[in-house]
Amino acid sequence: MSASIAQQVQSLRRFYNTAATRDLDWRRQQLRQLLRMTENHEKEIYHALHQDLGKSEQESWLAEVGYLQDEIRHSLKHLKKWSQARTSSTPLIAQPGRSWIQPEPLGTVLIIGAWNYPFQLLLAPLVAAIAAGNCALVKPSELSPNTSALIATLLPQYLDQQAFAVVEGAVEETTEVLKQHFDHILYTGGEAVGKIVMRAASEHLTPVTLELGGKSPCIVASDCDLEVTAARIVWSKWMNAGQTCVAPDYVLVEKAFADQLSQAIQNKLEQFYGSDPKHSPDYCKIINKRHLARLQSYLQEQTLLCGGEVEETLHYMSPTLVKDPDLNSPLMEEEIFGPILPIISLENISEAPEFINQRAKPLALYLFTQSKTLEQNVLENTSAGSVCVNDGMMFMANPELPFGGVGNSGMGRYHGQWGFDTFSHLKAVMKRSTWFDINWRYPPFNAKKLKWLKMLK
Ligand code: NAD
Fold first, then answer.
1. pLDDT of res. 2
2. pLDDT above 50 (res 370)
3. Range 217-397 classified under CATH 3.40.309.10
4. Does 320 sit in the ligand 1 pocket, CB within 6 Å?
């Protein structure tokens, strides 16, 4: 029988206390092993992702395997620099002296993944945790069972089992995991469970990174390059059948331009997925029947420009465009997280920031325009986890940019050094010399000492 969850966490902690994970060579070895795992089992990973979500190999490589490999290579390249002491200046009052920031591992951390990119959303945070020198327990999503089982089989074959463990399971197991004491928790998923995670973490005063979702707007101005804009919107929205946290949730467009844009999107959809996307090997399926029913319910009493076709046995919903939905309908009040794109027309595109600001802060915001004035207006007057101008999810390809939400779309960040820092304590260190120690700061105080102190500040 496998060890209980509590015993697994204790055993990880014991290993962490040996200080083995502080060694940069050990970390590099683990990262290389993870890379090897993705290389040696590429086909099996594709197969599991296809079984869970119907992903094509191209999509699986781009957004899961290749993406993770880039993250590992980037971490290997920069690990030495990231882990070095970062020099700071020292004020006059503390001279002679030196100051620096010394990153140190947090300890034993927990990573909880989501089902939509079940491979990389679990393992990219693990790359950061390894790079920063932590032990980790990872919990894949039970809603993508094939990828979960594959990770549970492969990870122990490649990584040091004393430092890393996988717990599979659903609510019962995750609840048990969350009772344990971790030094950090990174959770990816929806808002409701995010609150459960944060509540459980508060029992141990454990800091959390919450990678949540929300309704990411896509503003399209009539001066955009229509052909490229339509292609990039369709790529971002219908990759993984819209089950992407940073997919455009809805489009805001000027009334006079709405028909032209809708037509261009429909043309691109046909170009990408054919006249019947059900038969396209590049179009994904919906994760399960519950989510399919949820998505189907969004279409009640809406005006469809295209799509709306559902085939339950295939977990299929066709790419769907909705024209000017009721803003108080569930379609516009909940995160869609599926292949439905509402097109909302505004009298003037300059109203877009106000529309966005009336709602929760999104994870991502997209703007297609050639106008610098509009770009500045949107950047200055809205808040979002990330913004991409003239493209969709492409910003995710840059490991130099932090990835995370703001407000209801999440807290904290990772990717590249941002992930390393999330899983590190940035320890402040000051070292003073003792050869010079004048008494201005020591009692008994007098006016002259105060005058000197003020001068030194
Ligand atoms: P999910 O159902 O896979 O749940 C996420 C994790 O929480 C799973 O590991 C699951 O086992 C666990 N969980 C579920 N119920 C629980 C409970 N009661 N107690 C403890 N743990 C529990 O994923 P989901 O929530 O359906 O994911 C979709 C949401 O995730 C969307 O809102 C999406 O935008 C967001 N998301 C965000 C990101 C990001 O990086 N910011 C990425 C992907 C998805």
1. 56
2. yes
3. yes
4. no
Q: To test ligand 1's pocket by mutation, which of 67, 111, 116 has the most ligand atoms within 8 angstroms of CB? A: 116
Cβ of 188 closer than 6 Å to ligand 1, yes or no, is yes
For residue 209, give the H/E element and its range: strand 208-211
Known catalytic membership, residue 211 = yes
120-131 and 24-40 helices cross at what angle (nearest 10)?
A: 160
Distance 173 CA to ligand 1 centre (A): 14
The H or E element that residue 101 is part of is strand 97-105
**pLDDT, mean of residues 358-385:** 98
Superfamily for domain range 2-212+407-429:
Aldehyde Dehydrogenase; Chain A, domain 1 (3.40.605.10)
**Per-residue pLDDT tens over the stretch 133-157:** 999 999 999 999 999 999 999 999 9
Token digits for 185? 């928790």
Nearest CA-CA partner of 388 in 208, 235, 211, 222: 235
- Verify cis geometry, omega within 30 degrees of 0, for the bond prior to 96: yes
Residue (of 211, 274, 288) closest to 243 by Cα position: 288
Domain boundaries of the chain, sorted by first residue: 2-212+407-429, 217-397
pLDDT in tens, 285-335: 999 999 999 999 999 999 999 999 999 999 999 999 999 999 999 999 999
Q: What are phi and psi of 188, to 5 degrees?
A: -120, 125
